[in-house]
Design goal:
Layout (H helix, E strand, L loop, with lengths): L1 E3 L11 E5 L7 H16 L3 E8 L2 H5 L11 H9 L5 E6 L2 H4 L3 H13 L1 E7 L12 H11 L2 E5 L3 E2 L2 E2 L2 H9 L3 H8 L3 E8 L4 H4 L4 E5 L11 E9 L2 E10 L10 E6 L10 E11 L7 H23 L2
Parallel strand pairs: 1-4, 2-3, 2-5, 3-4, 5-6
Antiparallel strand pairs: 7-8, 9-10, 9-14, 10-13, 11-12, 11-14, 12-13
Helix pairs in contact: 5-6, 7-8
Length: 312
Amino acid sequence: MEVYRSLEEIHSSGNAWVTLGIFDGVHVGHQKIIQKLVSQAKAHHGKSWLITFDPHPQEFFLKKKKINLLTLLEEKLELLEQLGLDAVVVVPFTPEFAKIEPHVFVEQWLLQQIGMRGLIVGENYIFGKNRTGNVALLQKLSLRLNFSLQIQPLHFENGDPVSSTRIRNLLLAGDVLQATRLLGRPYALQGKVVPGEGVGRQLGFPTVNLSLPDSRKLVPQNGIYAVFVYVQGKKYEGTADIGFRPTLGGTQHRIEAYIHHFNEEIYGEMVKLEFIERIRDEKQFDDLNALVVQIREDTERSAELLSQLTNT
């Protein structure tokens, strides 16, 4: 998959089949659009192009409001490559770009620069200056400018449309099971292992403390989770704790995981957590003995849940 970091870099030979969007999370609804795009491009002996934007437009327009991203840019590109796309264009979302009229974007960039023959978008897609570009405008432009346009209906799960916002809300509520269904895979965090205070080791459950590379990455609701842990290309079962460690008088928000049957020093390594199921809320215990008993129960419950997936 080719990756372009601006529209100006592109030198297309034409017969491009294109989709547009943020694609945060690359969820099952996004996957439907991309699968159709790849199929159409192959059927017409063309190339499949996905155009996305960075930073997220909401970050640009709501500068003082933090946005929780399901996928950082490099995560998104990795997921998109797995779907068989020929090329992805990451358009810098700048003040100048935000002022481009929708019809200018279609004519100048999609048709002239990329050589678009066909366009596939979701039924609620909006783009261009002041969000004035929509499906109705695209239908008019497709007739006038002679390109194929296909509108992908929204994808529904449990009676509601799948959206990045819906998945964010599920994760912020700790519902990683439902988020997995809408994403088509477990939600994942990746971070660098940093030194902690060594309390877990003293209690008999040494943990890895993760530092995320970007504060915009969404962290699920505080609590205890059954997770798969990826270390140096290997997959392990684990139990993750997100929160403040109230029994220990913690004041700093932490993401840490006890990796089952693992006792290596991996400071500085990148570790990925896949969230499988939430076990319980974070809570304060009367003493360390009670905490140890609960950690042991959490670990056993986590191992039980994860073994069901490992053995299927």
